Amino acid sequence: MEGFTTPDKPVDIAQVFPELAGLERTTVRLHPRQDAVTVRDSSLGGPLLWPAEEAWPVCTVDHPDERPLTSPEGKRLQRRREEILEEKRNYEYTGPHPLDGEYAELETSIRELRRVEFADDPAASLPMAPIAQFYARDIPELPFPDGTDVCQVLWCPTDHEPHYGPRPLVRWRNSADVTEIRAATEPDREFSDEESLPSPCRIWPERVTEYPHADDLPSAELRARIAEWEKGTEWTYYEHLSAAPGSKVGGWISWVQYPHWPECGRGHRMDHLLTVSSTESGGWQSWMPLEEQATTTFVKQVWYQLVDGGSSGTTIGLDEEFDATEMTYWGAVAPETVRERVVPEDRSGSGRLDLMLGDVGDVYVFVCAVCPDRPVGVEFQCC
Ligand SMILES: [Zn+2]
Ligand SMILES: [Zn+2]
Q1: 152: CA distance to ligand 2 center in Å?
Q2: Which InterPro entries does this chain map to (predicted)?
Q3: pLDDT at 347
Q4: How far is the CA of 368 from the centre of ligand 2 (A)?
Q5: Distance, CA 269 to ligand 2 centroid (Å)?
Q6: Cα-Cα-Cα-Cα dihedral sign, residues 79, 85, 89, 95
Q7: If you measure from the C-alpha of residue 69 to the centroid of ligand 1, how many angstroms do you get, rounded to a whole number?
Q8: For residue 327, is pLDDT > 80?
Q9: Ligand number with the minimum distance to the CA of 262
């Protein structure tokens, strides 16, 4: 296997909309596939080059926990929170509730107290899991601080308040400094979210050009013209022509929901470091590697409306023809309503990361490339 090749785009969108010139970015698609990987390899979900003298990281931050606090102060805070909730229950929305601010402060105080009260609880302290390791020789595009050549990403494999998603940690190191290696602490299978623990994958970096997600475009007017253009083609800007789906480094983000670019504590807008995705699927004509297309079975999806109302559909072989004159189980087909689409038969993505982040979600990890200590941010989005 030599790697993966993203097909050429069905349309050169920058030809259609010259305003897109200058907005293109290069992303590194990672194309993860399960394989044996070592601490000396770049990988997703593989073992990390971790120095023996450094403790394995453990996360103790705000894992959701419904158990009530037991200290007098904790009980008081919880009572007050209940009172506010009761008031808000009967509130007819005319803008933010006057007690919203107090409520947010209470939540923070309760979280802080919970850290103290449940400090010895195993569910409150979880070993972090290896998510990614990138050597500069494979992905030189990363903002390696001076003197480092490995970027390591871990996350705590469960939800975190208040944003409900895995919490990442990024380490930059010099591989030459690591002589004795520490093996990863096994994840706590009882309190971790199994679907946030990836299977070890080798990566096959490939550089591709992307354009921004529609909501990252500089003007609503351009967005509207692109939407208008889509009506006359079988391609959609989001699925086929903008940002690459799947796990990748740098470039634009194929937001599952809406753009949210975090800022570091000093007010710099952070860069996209890494997307870890539940799925590698996007518009297959644009994003399914040619090597994979060659071994994939394609089928035809057929949709139609029925003469007596309602609609239905079926799947047929690529060389079959749908006969609109034949009676279906649900009744006669209105022939002029038949629509067909060629799709890959199996999109289960087995043999990849085996992650299911929420409902087919993505975790976006951000880094400030200006601040020398490279602060990170995270955003979790799912359907
Ligand atoms: Zn955690
Ligand atoms: Zn910064």
Answers
A1: 19
A2: YwqG-like_sf
A3: 65
A4: 5
A5: 7
A6: positive
A7: 19
A8: no
A9: 2
Q: Give the closest ligand to the alpha carbon of residue 163.
A: 1
Q: What is the 125 CA–ligand 1 centroid distance (Å)?
A: 7
Above 80 in pLDDT, residue 26?
yes
Residue 226: CA atoms inside 13 Å, Cβ hemisphere, count? 28
> Could you tell me where the beta strands, DSSP code E, fall in the chain?
25-29, 33-34, 43-44, 58-59, 126-127, 129-135, 150-156, 167-173, 201-202, 206-210, 248-249, 271-277, 298-305, 311-317, 339-344, 362-367, 376-381
Ligand closest to CA 374: 2
For residue 308, the CA-to-ligand 2 centroid distance in Å is 62
Q: How far is the CA of 243 from the centre of ligand 1 (A)?
A: 30
pLDDT tens for residues 123-182? 778 999 999 999 999 999 999 999 999 999 999 998 887 667 888 999 999 999 999 999
Q: Distance, CA 262 to ligand 2 centroid (Å)?
A: 10
* C-alpha 367 to ligand 2 mean position (Å): 8
The CB density around residue 30, as the number of other CB atoms within 10 Å, is 30
What six digits make up the tokens of 117?
């009260």
pLDDT digits over 201-211, tens only?
A: 999 999 999 99
Q: For residue 308, give every residue at least 6 positions away whose Cβ sits within 8 Å of its Cβ, in sequence order, or none.
A: 331, 332
Domain ranges (residues) in the chain: 72-117, 297-344
Of the ligands numbered here, which is closest to the C-alpha atom of 268? Answer: 2
Within 134-289, where are the H helices?
220-230, 284-287
In total, the chain counts a number of residues equal to: 383
Quickly list DSSP for 2-70: ----PPPPSS-HHHH-GGGTT--EEEEE---EE----TTS-EES-----BTTSPPPEE-S-----PPP-
- Whether the Cβ atoms of residue 220 and residue 210 lie closer than 8 Å to each other: no
Q: Are 151 and 217 contacting, i.e. CB atoms less than 8 angstroms apart?
A: no
CB 223 within 8 A of CB 51: no
